[in-house]
Protein 1
Amino acid sequence: MLKYIRRQALRIISFILLLIVYLINSAQLQLATQYAKTSPGTAEKYLGVMLITIAGILVLFTWLYQRQLNRNNPRQFGKRPITFNRLIQLCLLFVVMLLVQIIWSQLIMHHLLPMPTNQTAVESSIQQLPFWNNLYGVLVAPVFEEFLFRGFFFNFFFSKNNRWSTFFGVLVSGLIFGYLHTMAFSVTTLFYASLGWLLALTYLHFKDIRYNIALHFLNNLWSIL
């Protein structure tokens, strides 16, 4: 029992540390955005550090993910053949994700739900530094977030291939995903959590994180078009 508690504690600490690494990297973009108008030189320095950090995190996350799959992988996650049938399924999941967002936006437009509190901050950042914020949101965030909330999360805490592990894994990973997008518990948290649940089900269905990254990429790309 003591060995199990120690192992789980180490996994929790590891997950938090990996999350902090990602948050520090995104904070570098936020700092660059703040200085974009007042001090372009300073903004460029933060962007340089951000790009170097992105490369380092990508190598670290890829290595850790592959290592954990080699050590403990009862769900048989890994690279699966990319087939026409799987691509059709991915497109259908993207349509479902769009429908969730359309329904949510309609509820906001009809004043049945509040406007997301983080939306104003996101739009302000994009206006100040549009290219880099859009690039980060579309290309970088999907990769890191899928490694964190699907890749590492399931193998750290819900690796057993049974119904209860699957149910709680999807539920908890979605809630954490939702909370970290709002940094407060609100109705909007459920919106982001629903997207997180869909992404978790995608990971469990395809058993290949590349499909998750692609779906997340398409969703974020759609949001800026």
Note: The radius of gyration is 18 Å.
Protein 2
Amino acid sequence: MTILVNGVEVQEQDWPSPQLAAAHELLRQHAVMRGWLDDDAAPELVEQAIERVLAEEVHVPDPDEAACRRYYAQHLPRYRSGELVSARHILLQITPGTSVPAMRAVAEAMLGELRAQPELFAERARSQSNCPSGELGGELGQLQRGATVPEFEQALFEDAPLGVLPRLVKTRFGFHIVAVDQRIPGVQLPFEHVRERVAEDLRREAETLAIHQYVRVIAGKAQLQGVELDAASSPLVQ
């Protein structure tokens, strides 16, 4: 189905999801409306203008001590020293022109096969993965927190079981089938040693939520076709 944002067609195949494609176009149009961007600007100028929109119109307060302590208590596994995971993956890459639904269908089918026959993982990685690790059967070695993109890290470290994970991991690179082979839990760090890191993690999550809410508000004032963005008509959204 064609995606239209205020009458402008969006090229969904350039994005991991139709929602991201539509949100990007909404923010681009908002930058044009603010006079910060020409309607036919080059892609690099579009990204700069969108960053300006988010920087000037999405405000995230710094978390206080109490909020940081609560966040730390709720996410203890994140704040360990020496925590390592041995993992493998198969990347089905999303490139311009790729049909995202078709690629997801292929990835889901392969995931189902490997959940039933995990011994085929290395063979499928060598023949199907778009990552250089495919030549090694998908081996990524031992990974620590901060070594991968956030979505991948969350799948590896947030209480994931051993073996082939039951769900695809989607990142900006594409769809990943992931196998966790070993966990080394590490040692829990006290709050006082990680206060700044906790504050940064909490600030980042608050910023993500604030951007989501901001997009919902401007989506509530837009005409969308072919995509749902959970639009809100009021800025007082939760």
Note: The chain has two domains: 1-79+190-238, 82-188.
